[in-house]
Structure formats: C-alpha cells, structure tokens
Automatic annotation (TrEMBL):
Gene3D superfamilies: Ribonuclease Z/Hydroxyacylglutathione hydrolase-like (3.60.15.10). The keyword Oxidoreductase does not apply. SMART domains: Lactamase_B. This is Zn-dependent hydrolase.
Amino acid sequence: MQPIQLFDPESSTCTYILRAARGNEAVIIDPVDRQWERDLQQLQRLGLTLVAILETHAHADHITSAGQLRQVTGARAAAPAACGIAPADLQLQDGDVIRFGDGEEIRVLHTPGHTAGSMSYVWRGNAFTGDALLIDGCGRTDFQGGSAEALYDSVTGKLFTLPPETLVWPAHDYKGRAASTIGWEREHNSRLAHRDRADFVDLMGRLDLPKPRLLEVAVPANRNLGLPQG
C-alpha cells in the first residue's frame, strides 16, 4: 500500500492519506488549513472514514486544519508530546504505535532536530519524515528548540537505519519531487550523506536563512490545532 500524497502549492506542504488495506478507515498526516475541504472531499470520494489526524511537528510555514477536521469527522488528533500542542487527543512519545483499520500499525519515531518535538511515522515500508529528512536535504535547525546535533543523530541513528528500500515521504518539497528512499538519501543527500556530525553542525550553522514569513502566526495557531484562540 502506498499513501495518497496531496500538495499545497503556497507552502509546498505534502499531506498524506493512509488507507487501511481492509475496511474503510484512514489516517491523514500534516493537513493544511486552506485545503481541508479538498482533503475531506478526497476521503469521501474514496469512501474512507477518517479516524486519526497526525502532526509531525508544529509547523512554522502554514496553519494546520487538524482542529477543523476533528470537528467535522470526529477523528482523534495526535501530536508529538514535546511540541506543546495541548489540545491534541493523543500526546505521542517515541515508540508509540497508532493502530487503525484491521491490523494497520504506524510506528512513532521521535526525530528531534528541526524542532525539539519532531516525530516521524513508519507504516508499511513508508517513512513520513516531516522536516527531519527532506528529499536531498533536511529541515533547518535554528528555532523552536532546533538542534543540528540532535537532527544529525535523529537522521543517522534512526531514519538511516531503516531498510534502504523504505520510501521517504517528506513534509515539504520545493522542486516538484514526490518521494525518495532511505537508501538513496543515505548515499546522496547533499546535507547528510558521508558527513560526520561536526561537519554537519558547521554546515547548518552557516545557512543564515530568513525566518519563515508566517512564523509568529503559524506556530501559536498550530499549538491550538489551527483553531482560533480564546
């Protein structure tokens, strides 16, 4: 089974729908507020019942639709415990397993570095890596408790130890690419492949990237599942 990948062109965010092999239950990962109707229509078109909404972290470049989808569908919202997303129904820890459908299991991996709480999810030979591991790149590490040291350890110590044929589905791509593999990224990723920890930390420290345009708006909103505060 492969996920259904949906794309928000404004933030270059990838949203994923995971379908159970048996039954009609589904899970969505990293939905975007302005695309919630599209996502709901896609679920309805396929006859799927949404049972869980997963966040890889509190994004800084778009607002999630997790709260809105929860209100409409009754699905549970799940978020990394260390991201401060208090309204989430499930506060995820490393090693947790999310179950849906008839025997479907999503393994939860704590992969901090882009943010302190970032999580990746592994399901049926697919790794949903958030901003920890991108196609031929990785997420920045200079805000929200980010750490280049932690990101290097997360990717090399957890993600790169997955089977090489594991498909990599990132939270963002800016060049029109859909997916990669752990094996390819381990050998060719321009930021991580064949670098030691000190070299990677030095590289990340020299990026000097501008702050995301929506940082001050998106992070507080996403810590409330994208719903209005107060």
